[in-house]
Amino acid sequence: MLDKNLNVIDLAQKTDSFIKQINSKNNISVQEIQIDCDWTLESKDNYLRFIDAFKKISSKKLSATIRLHQIKYFEKTKIPNVERGVLMYYNMGKIASDSLNSIYDRNIAKRYLSSLQNYPLPINIALPIYSWGVHIRDGKIIGLRNKIDVNKLKNNNSFVSTKENWFTVKKSIFAEGVFYKENDQLKIESISKDDLLEMADDLEENTIQNPKEIIFYDLDEFNLKNYEKDLFKEVIDCF
After folding, report:
1. Which end of the chain is more exposed for a tag (fewer CB within 10 A), N or C?
2. Contacts of 24 (CB under 8 A, 6+ apart)
């Protein structure tokens, strides 16, 4: 989308063709296609033109992911030509060794929440139920490690828990295909039940109309086992 010479029509046609191939092979019938793009002021024009072109070519109902800053500053970032937005209510903070939790930071969220009341596009909500480990070496972040099983870390002699959600590598090791060097650190960032209920309450207070869908990202076996079964209904009931 940053390519000034991008052929938007060609990209839209190829995207539509690829989606149809996937659906045909897997015998899937879809009524809606969701486009995920963290567009910026620099990529805005291409992205909005792509949405327009893709909508005509696909003849499907479209939704698009929306970030908090795109809601607060929609007059600058503009609004894609879709039926509904999906607010991605996560990845708010800076991924850094000195941040509390880059997935969810209520203080950051509060800077944007009131803007929801003025956003012209109907929105659904996507909430996080994933976690990751921020891999730090010599004070620098060298990667994000997905689907870290904290219990495995606690039972692995190469890792030692130094403080809440922090582990230090006591002995160099390969684990889950990743090399951890002695003295590396791993900061676990995750979302608790209380976090999810807090998010839902804050959003409910600041949205004019209830969302038609609540998306939990992402619903897989690894993430589901970290939450009580009834929690998801409890969160939805907040709206």
Report:
1. C
2. none
Range of the domain at 58: 8-130+190-237
With 0-12 / 13-18 / 19 or more C-beta atoms within 10 angstroms meaning exposed / middle / buried, residue 219 is exposed
The amino acid that residue 230 corresponds to is D
Handedness of CA 173, 218, 124, 2 (dihedral sign): positive
Residue 2 in domain: no
Total domains present in the chain: 2
Residues 116 and 198 in one domain: yes
Q: What tens digit of pLDDT does each residue of 33-92 get?
A: 999 999 999 999 999 999 999 999 999 999 999 999 999 999 999 999 999 999 999 998
Q: Which residues of the chain have pLDDT under 70?
A: none
Give the bridge partners for 173, in sequence order.
180
**Residue 231 in tokens:** 């929690």
pLDDT value for 176: 87
d(CA 160, CA 153): 8
Q: What predicted TM-score, i.e. pTM, was given to this entire model?
A: 0.90
Whole-number Å distance between alpha carbons of 170 and 162? 11
CATH number for 124: 3.20.20.80
